[in-house]
Amino acid sequence: MKRPWIPFLLLLTGLCACAQQPRWEVFPGVATRGFSPRELAWDAYYSGEEPATCKILWPVPGSLEPDPNTSLTYLRGVETAQLVENGRVLHTWRVPFPTEEHESDAVDFATPRVLECLGYDPSGRLIAYDRVDYQPLPPLVEEPGQLVGSLWITYYYLSVEMDWEGPREIPIYDKQCRLMAHVPYAFARDVCVEGSGRLFEGTVINYGGRCECSIPCPLGGRICYIEVGNREAAWGLGSRRNPLVPFRSVAVDNNVIPHGATLYMPEWDGVTIPLLDGIGGFVHDGCFRADDVGGAIKGDHFDFFSGTRGMWFLLERRFRTRSRFTVYMDSTRCRYLETEGPRGGE
Question: What is the pLDDT of residues 249-277, one digit of tens each?
């Protein structure tokens, strides 16, 4: 049986649907009427307009991320773009590069993350959208290592002849009492205390042993030197002819801490080392290595190698001489110093 009323009913239903009020969706930085941001992006793509992309390449959806601060975004055909994390705008690009890597500042490792990318055309219309939900992975808890105890600090550095005034009239000698150079008296006194120095012409010299042909040192005895020809030892040599490294090498009593042991001091972890004399300019992680000894370094005392005299003055403002530090040995977080040697920025 024919039902002539069916087409009329379908037409009436369509008219009612069109008469419905469109919904509103509020999105960080944009309000869209009628459709979600993802629907708008797809609509722009399939409408024949210039394809636009705002794709989050990293992290991937549903992943557990050990470093939730890092993201990688691919952008194409957009004038501006925004990266939004949990409703907070992390970054805004104008005429962006195709691929952008961004570092955010995650507050914790427990809150699930919603990372969203929004791409706009020159008129400010949203034409590209992507979203990734993921969970930060809590960092592994690292044991600080074997507790050595509370040790107090002094500083030493590479003495530089150019830093000292006065006539170059004091002779310094090598271990065979052969003349090496004539230097100012103030430098001669300073280098025998610090153990290593750089002559006016650039030669690095290092403690070579006691002798009878040198002037008396302020700490007692007479010191002769060796010339350091190793380019990797531009800061002088430690107790086993190993290169010294600013901010990493410390002199210790080997009866308390063995030579070469890696050390962790939580008080230094997170301390910003200022940029001065071409060194520094990084955040310390609290890791050190027992590279040296000293005649005055006994018991609960360690000597921090600051690199330069000027750097010592700056570090004194943060931790004065005789400040005490909690020292751990063989920490897992400092293991890289055992195999790779002290690394970058230092």
Answer: 999 999 999 999 999 999 999 999 999 99
